[in-house]
Design a protein that fits this description.
The structure is a homotrimer of 431-residue chains. By secondary structure, chain A is α/β, with parallel strands linked by helices. Chain A has 3 domains: 6-60 and 159-350, Zn peptidases (Aminopeptidase); 62-155, Glucose Oxidase, domain 1, CATH 3.50.30.90; 353-429, Arc Repressor Mutant, subunit A, CATH 1.10.10. Helix content of chain A is 33%, strand content 22%. Chain A is built from 12 helices and 18 strands. Chain A has helices spanning 6-17, 27-39, 101-105, 135-138, 186-205, 222-238, 265-277, 293-296, 331-350, 376-390, 398-404, 409-421; strands at 44-49, 53-54, 57-58, 62-71, 77-80, 95-100, 108-109, 131-132, 145-155, 158-166, 173-179, 212-218, 239-245, 255-257, 282-283, 305-309, 353-356, 425-429. Chain A has an 8-stranded mixed beta sheet with strand order 1-10-12-11-13-16-14-15, sandwiched between helices. Chain A has a 4-stranded antiparallel beta sheet with strand order 5-4-9-6. In chain A, strand 14, helix 7 and strand 15 form a beta-alpha-beta unit. Chain A is elongated and about 90 Å long. Chains A, B, C: Residues 62-153 form the DUF2172 domain.
């Protein structure tokens, strides 16, 4: 499970994906998925036509944007979509018209409290148009007449997403979802597809997997509604755990957002991981939700989806601005997020109910299960070992035992494997 | 559910009832019930003969008092029952005898630490007599001979109580009990019958009621034992929630006393109400009990009866003295108690298990369920709405959801009604 | 249940047992058991041959030691097993050989941080030999040649233990275990067999017992494994509660070590007892275990065994040294431990589920159940009585009620007996 250079590799891939103008639909999503397919050839790209009814929603029209800019009276591009795709409000309808400065400013969004940042704005479900720029830049625009040009199309097309199935021994599934619908921003969202891609690579490198892994790259909200409308029965019957992957690439903190019930295997794996990796991690409540868990955990859907993040969406100043870029998201930040998520998935994959095969404490010396050397470290290992086996009565999973004795699962599992080999522990029942 | 002037109306009615010399039995109880019947014509007044065995108890003789006083050697009434009915120990047997000051003082009860207050004393179950006065007044009585006259009768008669049934759609009942056995004191007890009377009026004004409401006015302890001896099987099978109404008219605080188990619907409705109405409310334990919940929640009776109070009996200095009068109990104090109790009953009446009819989050915009204007207030309303529907999975009642998302039930219920109208929520199961 | 002089009697018996050189096996154990049999004639002494397979273990060879000493070049005994049996490492194999001071020191164990104390060392499961002495004494040994003599035998024999069955009305059993395998140390271990002996005497003095009591004196660890290998099915089916008795004779504190699950009747009786006896008692976790509960509570054995101690093994400086002697263990220390354990056993023996036979509160006055005099003390007794009966609904045991109303079981049980006599409470169901 070595992760050497994984952080840098993810960051490099991020540089390729960053400039693409993703949105809910359109060429940017397709280009993104095609690059991800280079990394994961088994990835299958799918589409759903605009207008399809999906539960209470309808798949929107496809948005295409060729160019967009604001010209001053000298014909200079004072705002230019080519320079930064955040400059145009997402899903802007076409326009070509001349405005006074005052009129232009009514359609120009800035963040006065972050004067260097271009905000990210969309208008998916009501027809509109607009430009975004930094407060500082806006203040340089003189009294003038401005020609506004948005060369876009909003018409029936399709919504794209992609799916990767990694088969395991069981039909039971682990579900991993991430989204690919934001233009040039790095923590929310590029870190999600980057870490998910490398988690998929790691899973495919394993000799064998207990569970089948279902990994999807979708546009947020409408994409998860689309996916659920096709697969919710299957998912409800088969998914044992899962994670929504987002905001997992900066260096500031670690965060956890629970599933709706908060007590699924995913929640237990996530909180166990973070408690041992970064005890000061920030724990949010279901009431702080805001991403695809809103659909995955909705009443009647009820999937066990938890979220491990670094800085949570909405909680860091760079969120949804041009400052959320590949300096905010770093190789080490991505690697930390990757390791945390991978460890939670490792727990899901490996957890089982251990049961001692002998009565009373076993004699470990004759089996070479005692460390040969004696040090503070080996004493603590022996204590963990004896504490662990004292709970192997077939009523608790190894993860539950790890929490009970306050030891990391990743330390206990290899010890448990030695005991299985020695015939002292058996698998009581697949979880 | 407007309560304008309800406080003043209750206080006015209190002025009429205050001077009556109530006791466990006798003319005072009958006069009180007859005035309440003017307010609630459907009220049925009932009686049980003295000597009737009721579980482990026997209905006592009826007490009638015509006059009582202490004359000094000049023939002046130095203590006079006509001036304040607390001056005579309740259930005093007749006497007409002359005593020295020293002898008189042995039968004269005062409160040295509250020298202005006349204490309230009774001797229901052992034959006795006595007078009560203020410490200050006692100290004015000179060395003299005193003629003591109590013109009372204690002989077989009956015990009176009253019952009001307000029918609802269901045979399941909400039980409301209050007591009418104390002479001139206002928080304990007049506030109880006053608020109960106006709760009954409010219930009778409703277009329809889910539950049947059973409201009783009884003498404390022996009255609840009498009532239970007649109806306990019926009550045990039908009562879903209930409240004992007492000490609910002063302005000082709000208090909660749980049912024996502490986790009934009544308890949940009471604590939810008080947490949102007055977060600093005082929460007592079952071990602090002292009124009819002692019978209603007794082993084998097991009714779900909780108590919402303002200042709890035994916990305020005016309790069981002449200072517990209609200056201590105020229109605003009564109105606050009325609103708290009414809100708890409203929760009991309205609570149900909501279940979403669509999968994934619904699109609220197209149904006009989003507020048209956007402000801090509407944002909070939308958040509450989305949090609420995220839990409408048929496993929790609306009250449980309200607690989960920390919103008042009274704010969520109207939103829930809109969702029912829009076909987005259905009633999963009557509670 | 008078315990006058019990502390002194236990301490006197301790003086007789203290000098004996107990070990896992051998003459010292037999001599100890034979003295205990003088106190408890019904005690049955049993044996198991060396080499017997017991679960994952094998009964070790029997160790006999005749003499052991270190001679200096003048032929003087500078270390002498006759002076203190801690001077020889337990289970030392025979040796007769001459060493330099440097060589001797490699086999000489001391405690540099407790320079007056001789440490207690054993080597049960790997063949070895050695001497123990105080750091101060070691420092007096000059450069010299030393003749080391250990006149011991380690060869097939047997392991001894003893069992006492005190029959009760029920086949269900209370199991009490203590160990007799340590040489001259008083808290760990003599206090265990001393208190257990006097608990057995107290049980045999009772007119009748609800439960059958099974009391064993065994060598630690291997003895409990031996005993379980013979009886675990019977114990698992019959034992309702039990205690491991150890470290129960000093004056410093009281301690509690839970069973593995922590919620057995034994745990409840122990914690209730200590909370009322010594609220500052030290509560350990299962992770702090270290005595025979490791076997009794092992997965698949699962006996309800908790431990009440004074200063816990491993937690006091005198532990496993010559300083753990009969000045550290005192008559009052033993008596305190005896009373705590006896009270916990009393709770186990007496607890039952009480149920009121009348509905509503009973009238206690007519039955003389109210105290005749009124004082702060009687008020508190009446409150405890009324609180108690308010919970006698057949759903909770008296111990659970005692915890609920925060009253000592030993205060409630006699009141409960009065109510049973008066016909107001019945035994709902044997626990």
């Amino acid at each position: 499970m070595s992760s050497i250079k994984v952080g840098s590799e993810m960051h490099e891939l991020g540089k390729r994906l960053f400039p693409i103008n993703r949105s809910l639909t359109g060429a940017g999503v397709r280009e993104t998925l095609s690059i991800l397919k280079e990394e994961l050839p088994a990835l299958e790209v799918l589409s759903v036509p605009s207008g399809t009814q999906v539960f209470d929603w309808v798949v929107p029209n496809e948005w295409t944007i060729h160019d967009a800019y604001v010209l001053n009276s000298q014909g200079e591009r004072v705002i230019d979509f080519q320079a930064n795709n955040l400059h145009v409000v997402g899903y802007s309808v076409p326009i070509k018209e001349t405005f006074s400065r005052e009129e232009l400013f009514k359609k120009l969004y800035t963040l006065p409290e972050q004067p260097d940042a271009i905000p990210y704005i969309t208008s998916y479900y009501s027809e509109n148009w607009g430009f975004c720029t930094s407060e500082n830049h806006k203040n340089t625009l003189p009294d003038d007449t401005y020609e506004v040009v948005i060369d876009s199309e909003l018409k029936p097309g399709c919504l794209n997403y992609a799916e990767l199935i990694i088969p395991g021994e069981s039909d039971k599934e682990v579900f991993i979802s991430t989204y690919i619908c934001h233009p040039s921003m790095a923590n929310n969202e590029l870190s999600g597809p980057l870490v998910t891609t490398y988690i998929a690579k790691w899973l495919m490198q394993q000799d064998s997997l207990k569970y089948t892994y279902r990994i999807v790259f979708i546009p947020e909200t409408i994409g998860s509604v689309v996916y659920l409308s096709k697969h919710h029965e299957h998912l409800k019957n088969n998914v044992v755990a899962g994670f929504n992957v987002t905001c997992i690439g900066d260096d500031k903190t670690y965060s956890y957002l629970p599933s709706r019930t908060g007590n699924t295997l995913s929640d237990k794996a996530a909180t166990h991981t973070l408690r041992h990796l970064y005890p000061d991690y920030k724990s949010y409540s279901w009431l702080d939700r805001g991403s695809d868990e809103r659909q995955y955990c909705a009443p009647g859907i009820d999937l066990p989806i938890a979220t491990i993040m670094r800085s949570k969406y909405g909680e860091y100043p760079e969120y949804h601005t041009s400052l959320d870029d590949l300096t905010f998201v770093t190789p080490s930040g991505l690697e930390g997020g990757y390791i945390a998520l991978r460890n939670a998935i490792y727990i899901v994959e490996k957890d089982f109910i251990p049961k001692m095969t002998v009565l009373c404490e076993p004699q470990l010396g004759k089996r070479g299960l005692y460390p040969n050397t004696s040090s503070k470290d080996t004493k603590s290992k022996v204590a963990a070992m004896m504490d662990m086996i004292s709970y192997c009565d077939g009523s608790m999973s190894l993860l539950e035992i790890a929490n009970k004795i306050d030891q990391p699962f990743s330390k206990l599992y290899p010890i448990c494997e030695q005991f299985i080999e020695a015939g002292l522990i058996e698998i009581f029942k697949e979880k």
